[in-house]
Amino acid sequence: MAYYTKTEVTAHTLSRAAAVNAQFAAIETGFALLPAAAVLGEGRANYVSDTGGVNAYLVTMSPTATAYTVGMEIVFIPDNNNTGASTVNVDSLGVKSIKRRGGDALVAGDLSSAAIAMMRYDGSEFQMQSIQTTSVASLPLSVANGGTAATSAAGARSSLSAAALGANSDITSITGLTTDLTVAQGGTGAGTFTDGGVLLGSGTGAITAMAVLADGEIIVGDGTTDPVAESGATARTSLGAAALGANSDITSITGLTTDLTVAQGGTGAGTFTDGGILLGSGTGAVTAMAVLADSEMIVGDGTTDPVAESGATLRTSIGVGTGDSPQLTGIELGHATDSTITRASAGDINVEGNVVYRAGGTDVPVADGGTGASTHTANNVLVGAGTSAITSVAPSTSGNVLTSSGSAWTSAAAASPAIAAAAGIMQANANFVDAVIFGPAMDPVDWSGRTAANTASLMLATLEDLGSTSEVNVWDLTSTTIASATPLATITLSSGNPEAIAASMGYIIVGSLNGTFIVDPHDGVWQERTVGWPRRLQDTTVPALHSQNVGGVTAGFSDAPAYDPRTGGPLPSFGVKYTSGTKQGSLIKDDGNVWDITGGGSSAETGCLIHNSRLYFNYNNEQLRATQPISTVNSNLSTNPPRLFVYNDNYPYSIAAAVDKMSAANRTIALASGEGLGFNLETSSTGRINAVGGGNGGINASVTRVFNTGYYTEYTKGIWLANSKTVDRGPLPNTLTENGTVTEAAVETGAELLGYSGFTASNNLSKASDADWDVITTGSAYLSCWVKSSGNSAQEYFINFGNSGATVEFILLWDSAGRIEGRDDGATAQTSIATSDSFDDGIWHKADFVRVSSTERYLYVDGVLKNSSTTDAGSLSDDGNLPLYIGVLAADGSSGPADDSTLALAKLSVTAPTATQIRQMYDAEKGMFVASAKCLLQSGSTDAVLDVSVDPITSKVAVTQTDSQMIWNGLVMESAPAVNAGASEHNKLFGGDRVEINSVNLYATIAAKSLRGDLELVRGLKAGLPAGPDLGKCKAWCYIDSSGGINASYNIKSVTDNATGNFTFHFGIPFKSVAGQSAAYSVFALAEPRSTYAENSFFQSSGSDRTKVNINNFNTSATGIDSLNLMMGVFGELENE
After folding, report:
1. Measuring CA to CA, which of 33, 192, 194, 677 is 20 to 30 A from 176?
2. 84 or 667: which carries more pLDDT confidence?
3. Which residues have a Cβ under 8 Å from the Cβ of 509 and sit 6 or more positions away?
């Protein structure tokens, strides 16, 4: 508080008396606030009086304090002694604890009404400055201060919670023992006993407990060892007792003095005649007869005891005379009236009146379950004759069958079935140029009902060169007459020099050196069409062809075709390939326009094809190109290239750049050239039409008489072990060096593909570092190899490249446990992924290690994903220092030899294949690794392939060479039909029907069918199916993983992963389309979501059509997601229904 506030008086000025008096009054007021002079003089300024109670003291200061301050001192004499912890309240400022100096709580007697208490405030509580009692010695020292807080032993024990020594009543229970109280200490020496167990003493040792006695057990002692529990026989033995009732415990009874009676199970006698036969007597004692004399027998009379008889007495008793052979009229077995056996006739007997037949006796008649005959002619067929003996029919001439006349069976030649297989020379003619199979069965709409012309569901159009004219013949392939058949129609064209023929929707296009011709039946008769559209075109017509010289033609559909009122279906578009002029070819659109393809000029190779709504063509003898979708072509294609497919060099599309013929169906494209056979499997939703290096160029395969590459990707840098130790079958090539000797042998007995083994540190294959793979940086890389091994116990390297320091490597190998492993060792880190199971089983397996980028890689075995990794391996580059090895580790060229392995088809690419492509490659190649598999061209003289034809139903491919014809299924030749005559030129295939054009005739082989006239309505691509298809069944379904890998499927050819959550499913057999729509079907999809995703939703995008469906998978935020697994299904009507 302020006692006085000074007011300054200005110097050298006059002050009023009032002002001076005010100053003095203020001083007086300040002094009035001070304690009295006597109080200050006597030191009683802080002494206060206590008006509180026990342990709660209340004091008032003068002047009154307004707040507690650190250092505040109070002195007072308590009105009451404290009994424990205490508080003080000064001037009603609030209760504060009183503590001993150092912070200890007060104990009883620290504050005494007989002593002055002095304490100071420390900011939170008052501390005693000293403990002033009348007799410090009489106050006990607290436990907290090292005392006992008591003045007696009992009090100390109480304060310390201690018990008295010796016998006492302080300890009421003991719960903290960690050691069992011993027997010597009065305990048991144990901490637990079996519940219900009998306790056993052991001197001063711990008491033990027996196991709980089982039902019926007793405790038995032996006088020495611990007693034991016994029951049953053991207890009876110990007690010397036998079991009650029937038992085996009593082994003998020796003390009986009375014979055991019969009623008691005895004999009632104590002795019997030795050798005497015993006779019972009810419950009386058993008696014994006298010993039988020689020849005596026992004879009974049915009443009294039997007696012993012999001689005449015995014969009299049994009714037999001396020397008699007894004769019985019958024998009754078991019963007087049952099973009576009597004589039937000489050698035969009856049982109950029924004759028993015997071997060598009378033939068993049919009525008695026999045949009525004792012999049958070998190989005759038995024929029933009522109850008469069975007769038989001889087989007669080979090939005969049983024929019924309605009343009898005879052997006769087999009659031809109504729908039999047919084969034969349709026409002997050396003028055939080309042929095409076509008809309503192959088209999206059945147009046959709109014309009066002779048609069939499946037909063949042949093209002949007659010199100054050309001839088109239309043949019925559903006819029962094939040999020397009569055509449905013959159309003569006014120009000769025909080159090629194609057809769609009944429109036949002929390419010649005088332009193109159109033939169709849609006006009621087969004839050339010269007006309307489509029609004949030349370089002078409007619209005009670029050149008269048309070497190749094709027919197909735009992605948005025009409607044709003649057929009620889509109007086809056509493509032509020129053999002269400055243009490659032309697209003849369904809208009446002709658009030229410029650049590169014409070529002798005439291959062209409309497929997937694009025009494919051979470009400049070295490339295969395709237009954009036909509906979008509205001007000449002058860009170079219009759409680049893949070509030779780094992007091979087939065995040769120059393609003379090409054919496609579903996702398979077959290519024929002078250098061999090429295959391509499409995998992208756009039919592989991407810029070079886009990775969606499909997968390719090349086949000659010497090798089969299997399928490979774009940017392939090497295809090795394809029937050569060192030759690279790829486009570059990168030839290997054979170090030492590597063994070469067929992969299986009789197979044409060869495998390679015998790898050691000094026997292997290598190639020096090459720019094709030594600077991959962070990009893609891909290793593939077929391998077979059994018994490997160490790492074995298949194919790999790496530097000498093993700091940059890319490897495909076995590990020591037979697991397949892929190793990606870049500049940042080494990443290895392996299968969880062993494949070291002596079976061929396909291993694929795919590096998409430095942060994404996959390992597949037999087309199935086995492991993956997203670790950043870094750059895969070491310019000039990455040699490639097969059979050993590249880092040192000797370690880890594949000495237990056989390898084949080893490949390196810098394009990462998709999961779908990996599966396609495995499915196509696995047939090459079986016994007797044929996978090479079969000509004896040439690799040239003249023609290819892909079956739209089966996707099998007919391959034609001049001296060989083959049917291929995947990459394996399924059959090799013999050339009918002359030199083979063309083969056309559809649903197992094959048409052959050779140098001397037209020959056809038609498979047997249940209804020939409607064969394609049942199994072809037929639109107009009678009597309705089953729309209640799912016609296509697929179960995929998050990357689009197929787990299981039906009628799904392949799956393309377009983007996150976006997949295209390609149908094996397409669905039907309806007028104005690209497809008509219903789709469902289900997904297994990841835990972090919300509910999924699906919709079908605009990229869907009759051949494929596009499905997007979104979460509730409309963001595309890849679910763990996705299941889709499609309901609708297939083309072949």
Report:
1. 194
2. 84
3. 501, 502, 503, 516, 517, 518, 534, 553, 555, 574
